[in-house]
Specification:
Length: 406
């Protein structure tokens, strides 16, 4: 037997007297806790808001940090005490609260009530140190990188700092994800920071492409973990397929006919997208019929897959119509991808006529007016991801991805 171990030592049964003594100690602790709880209830009922009451709540919270009613009472006491303090005294008192919550977070790092009280303290103290909070967050994430309470608190701190540096926050998620791909909170925070860290559409598209590579590495490393899969789905929803194409139609109304539209003697231009798109407030399309400009009034909601514009008057069969839409007239609801400038034209038929694309702003845009994504078209992104997943199925036949691509 090792001199430092206990292997080979016969266990000695606890005597009845020892068990009774331990039970007595436990009963004593429980009774003391009950008395402390009752004392706190009595103090709050009687409205005793002084330093002694504060000390009682401190003793109770050190035993039970989850007692949210006591936290509420503590804040009532502090607000009363602060009323008679100068700024420096309030600051000093709040610093004590910060130390109290920090010590309790060591034993209860996922306590909603402790984090809530720390937020209240920072919002109450005259000179909060947000840089200190970032250090605390960093230390706690080193202990548990997936503690969603800490990630939520980091978002709060960043917002309190005026959203801080979105690029630095984005880079922070890169660091944490590279440490552990199975970190859903880091992936989620990354999805929030990406649009803020990269303001223009071009840089967003470049980062999205880079993140496809990052998420592929994560999936290949840990194919059974759902975090990377969820982020991949988010990425596929963010690439500009939202506004990569649209269709433009003219709904004719001929005064000489007896159809249902003739009563209004009005025609309409309809623009459709594969997903929801938002018409810029005050946005207008430019419609020309046989060389004459015709007023077009929006007739549908600002956001949707279909946008209709009523024309001022009827449009005769056989008329030549041109519809121009400026770049950015429509916007997306994902990465704020804007529509490209596009001109469509055609000959008005009997009822509904689809107009052909005449020209659009990007030199490399296709006839479907697709918006390029870092040099790769939207459909190609899906093809690349599908090929990657099929390859993973061959390597990991039992991976869940085979169900994803089915």
């Amino acid at each position: 037997m090792s001199s430092f171990g206990y292997h080979g030592i016969k266990r000695v049964a606890t005597s009845e007297a020892a068990r009774a003594e331990r039970a007595a100690r436990e009963r004593s602790k429980i009774e003391a806790y009950r008395q402390l709880c009752q004392q706190t209830v009595d103090l709050r009922r009687d409205g005793v808001l002084d330093a002694d009451s504060l000390a009682v709540t401190t003793a109770l919270l050190n035993q039970n940090p989850e007692f949210y009613t006591v936290w509420n009472f503590r804040r009532e006491i502090l607000q009363r005490l602060f009323a008679d303090m100068d700024v420096d005294a309030v600051q000093a008192s709040c610093e004590k609260e910060i130390k109290l919550t920090e010590s309790l977070l060591r034993v209860a790092p996922k306590s909603y009530w402790v984090w809530n009280h720390r937020r209240w303290t920072l919002e109450t103290m005259p000179r909060p140190s947000w840089e200190r909070e970032l250090k605390l967050i960093g230390a706690m994430l080193e202990m548990d990188a997936r503690n969603f309470h800490v990630w939520d608190y980091r978002r709060y701190v960043a917002k309190s700092m005026g959203n801080g540096d979105p690029k630095a926050e984005f880079d922070f998620t890169t660091h944490k994800i590279n440490q552990n791909f199975s970190n859903f909170s880091a992936w989620h925070y990354r999805s929030q920071m990406l649009p803020k860290a990269f303001a223009d559409a071009s840089s967003q598209q470049d980062v999205v492409l880079q993140d496809f590579e990052l998420v592929r590495n994560a999936i290949y490393t840990e194919p059974a973990d759902q975090s990377a899969w969820l982020y991949q789905r988010w990425l596929l929803g963010q690439e500009p397929s939202l506004l990569r194409s649209c269709s433009v139609y003219v709904v004719a109304s001929h005064p000489a006919t007896d159809d249902a539209l003739s009563s209004s003697a009005s025609a309409a231009v309809v623009v459709t997208f594969p997903h929801g798109a938002k018409l810029r407030r005050g946005g207008q399309i430019v419609v020309t019929v046989d060389g004459r400009m015709v007023a077009a009034t929006p007739a549908t909601t600002m956001f949707g897959r279909l946008h209709a514009f009523l024309l001022d008057g009827a449009v005769a069969r056989g008329s030549q119509i041109v519809v121009e839409m400026a770049a950015g007239l429509f916007g997306g609801n994902k990465l704020d991808v804007a529509s490209v400038g596009i001109t469509t034209r055609g000959t008005v038929g009997d009822s509904v006529t689809r107009l052909e694309v005449a020209c659009d702003a990007p030199a490399n845009a296709s006839a479907a007016s697709e918006l390029p994504l870092g040099g790769v078209q939207g459909d190609d992104i899906w093809a690349v991801e599908l090929a990657s997943l099929k390859e993973l199925v061959e390597i990991e036949p039992d991976s869940k991805c085979k169900y994803e691509i089915a």
